[in-house]
Write the structure tokens for this entry.
Amino acid sequence: MTFNENADISSGKVSRRGGGRGMKIGGGAGGGAIVIVIIVLLVQHFTGVDVSGVAGGLSGLQGQQIDTSGDEQLQCTAAEANKDANCRIQGAAALLQDYWSKQVQGYTDPQGIVIFDQSTTTGCGAASTDMGPFYCPTDQTIYIDPKFYDELAQQFGEEAGALAQLYVIGHEWGHHIQNITGTMKGKNLSATGASSDSVRLELQADCYAGAWIGDAQAETDENGQHYLNPVTKDQIADALKAAAAVGDDHIQQATQGAVNPESFTHGTSAERQKWFTTGLNGEPVDCQTFGIPASQLS
Ligand SMILES: [Zn+2]
């Protein structure tokens, strides 16, 4: 997955939050082990709670002023988005804004995407690296520590890693769509279980990510330049592998040695692939994970 180097991605609103910048995780003897522990936590948490825990649990700082004075707006070119994970997020944001503004009447962008290092304050409370990427409905902002991306690139290789990264951003943006369209309203965000509101929200966000990625190749900037070079079947297959890797059953089996559907929050590997594919081959309107029987989720 590569960006067309002539495309203009300057509309993507992504900032890097100061403070932790320049600090290195680990370092010296034992640093590697620390990094690995953090990566395991990241993967667990992306599959654990990327909306519900935030909305339900971290209310300590809600309403407080967030210090954004050290934020630095990224100003990447499309060529840089092909080389740098942070710049790739900016490219994804430019594409997502274009796509969703055409899909949703009265659409408004998220406040932005904040790239942070180790910890930061958010409209949903304090956030740290081990939470993985998440969307905060209160301040309508996506938060991500790019160390999560290093892990995706390691697991899926550089090329697949790039598309898997877009899948993650597209998924979090999907939660923003659920927020502004009212889908989140009245839903039990801290429920767990195979057919819980949480799982339905997560599978719908996967579907929205798929719908966007399926259309992304057709998107053009203001000058008519395609944002992306054509995406290959192999790359799509790799993005599907990424969706499978973050299924509740897969993660539970790997980390606990057993699968417990009652604690599901995101759905199984098969379900995540199914709904990503539904989006990929369809439109957002096809992403109806609510109002259907549990048997139709899988
Ligand atoms: Zn999610």
User: Anything to note?
Assistant: Residues 20-49, 52-63 have pLDDT under 50 and may be disordered. The first strand starts at residue 14 and ends at 16.
